[in-house]
Design brief:
Structural class: mainly alpha
CATH topology of the largest domain: Arc Repressor Mutant, subunit A
Number of domains: 3
Strand content: 5-15%
Helix content: 55-70%
Strand order of the largest sheet: 1-3-2
Distance between the termini: 51 Å
Number of strands: 3
Order of helices and strands: HHHHHHHEHHEEHH
CATH architecture of the largest domain: Orthogonal Bundle
Largest sheet: 3 strands, antiparallel
Radius of gyration: 24 Å
Shape: flat
Number of helices: 11
């Protein structure tokens, strides 16, 4: 933790701890930060009685952006609005896509990263490009991309000195797989609970119904998975044949 910039969540906690009457040393201990870091953060952003975490984070992001090198190979607006796309529709869809990703349980920054990469025709962005697009610190991008890689929703490749992040071809399959695994847990939990409480009791009957419902869902999802994998493999082979012929 020491050496990394404060992130938005930490600033929210600082504001809460100040409201609770905690001193800088105690706040630093809870956040595993030096007390001097907390004191400097509060002093430069309005002081003890006027500290606002949102404004403090925006100011820090602006300072970080001023220190970042310019990205001369990317025009965000030009890329997003190419092919005669409507700027208003692109912006509206961007917000909608982020909201959908958030509903799957992703953090706000992770959802924004997925949406940004998904809406590029190249299907990839570098860490620097993500920092500039999202107006967040490099540390925030690093943590969120690592989180997405753990979920197998992103993969990273080194592009010279920069790290570039790509969406996997099977992104939706992996998202579906996570949902299927959760449904399996629901099914097994319900059936186990029915056995524990007794199949002839009201609680046992409810749990049995729950378990059987999710068991049926899992069977249907597995059948759909098999159809998709067959289709996807044929699609990949067709792409390879087309490339070879070209």
């Amino acid at each position: 933790m020491p050496g990394k910039r404060l992130d938005e969540e930490e600033r929210q906690l600082i504001a809460q701890f100040l409201w609770d009457g905690l001193g800088y040393s105690e706040i630093g201990r809870r956040l595993q930060r030096p007390a001097s870091t907390i004191q400097r953060e509060v002093a430069r952003n309005g002081g003890h009685n006027s500290y606002r975490p949102g404004a403090a984070h925006r100011a820090a992001s602006e300072r970080a952006m001023r220190r970042m090198p310019a990205v001369d190979d990317l025009d965000v607006d030009e890329e997003a609005y190419s092919f005669d796309r409507s700027p208003a529709q692109v912006q509206e869809f961007h917000l909608r896509l982020v909201a959908v990703f958030r509903q799957t349980g992703l953090t706000r920054t992770a959802a924004r990263i997925l949406a940004e990469i998904f809406m590029t025709d190249r299907g990839s962005l570098s860490a620097t490009e993500l920092v500039l697009r999202l107006s967040v610190s490099p540390g925030t991008v690093s943590r969120s991309t690592a989180y997405l890689q753990e979920l197998d929703l992103l993969h990273a490749e080194r592009d010279g000195k920069r790290m570039r992040y790509f969406l996997g071809d099977d992104l939706w399959y992996r998202a579906w797989l996570s949902s299927a695994q959760r449904n399996s847990i629901w099914a097994q939990t319900g059936l186990d609970g029915a056995e524990i409480f007794g199949l002839g009791t009201p609680v046992g009957a409810r749990l049995k119904d729950m378990g059987q419902f999710f068991a049926f869902v899992v069977v249907d999802m597995e059948a759909t998975r098999d159809k998709w994998l067959d289709f996807f493999e044929k699609k990949k082979r067709a792409r390879g044949e087309t490339t070879a012929d070209a």
